[in-house]
Amino acid sequence: MAKGKAGLPRFTVPSMSLAEGANVAAILQDRLNALNDLALTLKHIHWNVVGPHFIGVHEMLDPQVDAVRAQVDETAERIATLGVSPKGTAGALVKDRTWNDYSVGRADSIAHLGALDMVYQGVIADHRKAASNTEESDPVTNDMLIGQLRELEQFHWFVRAHLESSSGTLSTDGSDTEVEAATAAEKDAAAH
Predict the structure, then answer these.
(1) Which runs of consecutive H residues, i.e. helices, occur in the chain?
(2) CA nearest 182: which of 108, 100, 71, 90?
(3) Mind listing the pLDDT tens digit for each residue in 35-59?
(4) Which residues, at least 6 apart from 29, have a Cβ–Cβ distance to it below 8 Å?
(5) Domain 15-191 is classified in which CATH homologous superfamily?
(6) DSSP state of 100
(7) What's this model's pTM, rounded to 2 decimal places?
């Protein structure tokens, strides 16, 4: 990529400085990595889910994968619009991510949903932070992130509906890791 002064892009969108464009692109690159990772994680779960609720979870995940992949494309194209080259390779994702790889292999559907609850919590919290950080500097990016949040939060609700009791308690409450959440969800399901 051709860069201008101090590693800044040569162009960005009208009314934004090159530094602002580069800053928003950096925020979006982190979101691009997270969304690419989420799409891969959802597909991994789709392939590795087993148990009595297999087909329901298996079929619930494919529309989520498709929607997240569309968000990946939208995010990468916004980065390019800002004058920066989006990095979409597996190596760049692994090098730059700040989270661990999804750690549940072949497992019961409720275990995967417990772990996926934790994944969605992290992605959504970071997406909300990115939306907040772009609210003033780039309303177009902010609007895009808010639209993505609407979908991500709905998908998270679909997952949590499997983990919630009729009293509103989540089986994953108090879990700090995917494995803890998977174990808690399995224990709760076995008790009921």
Answers:
(1) 18-48, 54-81, 90-96, 109-134, 139-161, 178-191
(2) 108
(3) 999 999 999 999 999 998 999 999 9
(4) 79, 84, 86, 87, 96
(5) Ferritin, core subunit, four-helix bundle (1.20.1260.10)
(6) P
(7) 0.94
